[in-house]
């Protein structure tokens, strides 16, 4: 089959690779109809995630048709149309039992590797380095889906297009969880750093969960326009103004009740010296992150407010404002998204017409053009917000 | 197995002392490394050594090593390994200073002073490292009356000693049956339970059953053989860790989670060799 393979920093290639086959009785094989490129893939593409190997198949946001099922996979049959969550979860360990699917204790066969770096290991993830299991990803014609009776959700409503349901695999639940973790109360003002696809869903979700105002922060006008479309009441271009100052102004001096960080380890800073400082430290591996948005979110949040970190980080950061956090009683919540929890409730919101996730899509490309898709998305060219590949 | 056998009161106090000392030594590394990397010539003059370019290069190298030691001990929390490498570093520094004493001495008193300081550090580092190695363990009580973590009373053991525990979300009897039926290659659970090296405890709340293992497998091919096996993930301790993970997965889910790079399930070998095989579907042969 054809598959998008990582072949080193800033290069992906669509290559011929072996077809997947069932490895356990709880596996299924899915023929992929739509698959997307995620901000998380950019961290791999840019070479900031350790334990990648040349030839790794990328992709963790995909959907398609079941073409083969293992004999213990109940509730799923050949021909079913499914969306597959990006974390792989067994459904029966202690973490899965608590609904913490992205912390599954059984799905990461390389847990030992992750424990060395992170103390304990998270779940396996499709197409996301050896440390999260070494699973082939879904930017391909086919994928093997382990624990297929736990993850994939069947889409029975034929009126829903792929673009409308594909993002249940990751970014819609991720943005939603980012907002849900903030425990939004009536009258709350929520600020969202990053108006990429995750940020856009966080904005839309904060509105759905009852925020009175949502402030979007980014530097690309076309993304800030999308943020308005998603429901943002105010937008800030962080290259033009001092974000914390404007946030104070917009909130009567209090600061936002909740801050959602949807930027991640490759954040950018408007001030070239600050940006350069973290860039050099990251390039020389003295820190693994460029955590501008995390710092700013903590400093901006109101006393006792919540900062929810949805952007992905890998290791150690520098200049973490622990003093601000502690003295002002800020709560931090974060995590890889426990996608499985949100599948049914969010599908219901899509079916009821409350939200149409396809608004984030800017580009459709054939799978063979994945390298172009990565470049467009990385450099925010051609007003790119989200690339969907069709194998 | 009753929990009262392991009454917490008789246990040695938690190993706070050596840990504190290790951290102080870890930070001290950077304090010492700073003048070496920032002003190597001045540093050399201060310890009474001629500041020629070779000596400066050595000083920069040692200074960098000191910073790495801080990173190791403080940032990575690898206290035991970090302090043992400091012992090696101190020994190296003594050798360097002795060489300087013979060939590059400028101020005898200062140089002897520096040697005294390094000698003192060598003693302190060695003592701390030994204590950390002894204290590197913990005991846990049955969840029905969990007593927390403390330093182990029977400290010690060699490099292959496995001290680990895994929680399986199943009732005790089911875990016992499964333990008996699983094809263990590295140990015999019944024999280890009889010798007290394997303990089965009820986890707190509804968390299931804990399997604790404190066992030192006999290295095949002696220490050298074990070190070689370690490089390819086949040392007995690594095999035990792999098998415990497979066991947990099998009991909880009915299958062993297999990824494209580890088609046989959890495998230390695959994790060490992961650069050899990309995450692509495995073919029949591989
Ligand atoms: N937690 C999870 O489960 C999960 C799931 C999916 C994605 N993610 C992560 O979410 C993050 C965003 O993903 P995405 O797909 O939206 O990526 P993206 O690259 O499209 O979006 C990131 C946005 O952040 C903006 N940005 C950069 N620096 C900023 C700053 N200082 N202040 C404000 N905005 C800034 C960029 O301009 C960009 O628009 C990534 O780190 C991704 O890995 C996490
Ligand atoms: Zn994603
Ligand atoms: Zn699980």
Automatic annotation (TrEMBL), chain B:
In terms of domain of life, where is this protein from? Bacteria
Mind telling me which SUPFAM superfamilies this protein's record contains? Bet v1-like
Give the protein name, as stated in the record.
Coenzyme Q-binding protein COQ10 START domain-containing protein
Bias class Polar residues marks the residues at 259-271
Q: Which InterPro entries match?
A: START-like_dom_sf (IPR023393)
Question: Region (Disordered): which ranges?
Answer: 257-286
